[in-house]
Amino acid sequence: QVQLVESGGGLVQAGGSLRLSCAASGRTFRNDGMGWFRQAPGKEREFVAARKWGITSYANSVKGRFTTSRDIVRDTVYLQMNSLKPEDTAVYYCAAGADVLSVNSVSYWGQGTQVTVSS
Fold first, then answer.
1. Which residues contact 89 (CB under 8 A, 6 or more apart)?
2. Torsional sign, CA 69, 22, 71, 26
3. With a cut of 70, which residues of the chain have pLDDT below it?
4. Which residue, among 90, 97, 85, has the nearest Cα to 113 in the 3D structure?
């Protein structure tokens, strides 16, 4: 059974930082992409960041502030979030699969972890 287990969410003041992690089990994603989406209240799930074969992709809204990295051996992906803004508040979902750049193409999802940024 494939699972993506997320951790690291929480409450932080604007300008602060958080680091999310997502560990895969049940299969390896070493040859696939792993990344992150988020969903704010009243909004659709949107792409945040992803990494596949050493290539990183970021949504324009987080470029320069967020960094995603992977421990390939451990099948774990991280999202380092710096300079957080209240508009970053959302449930963050780990994603994995051949295509993790589109919400409609993701093969596996994590359970989500809440990130709340206060002003």
1. 40, 115, 116, 117
2. negative
3. none
4. 90
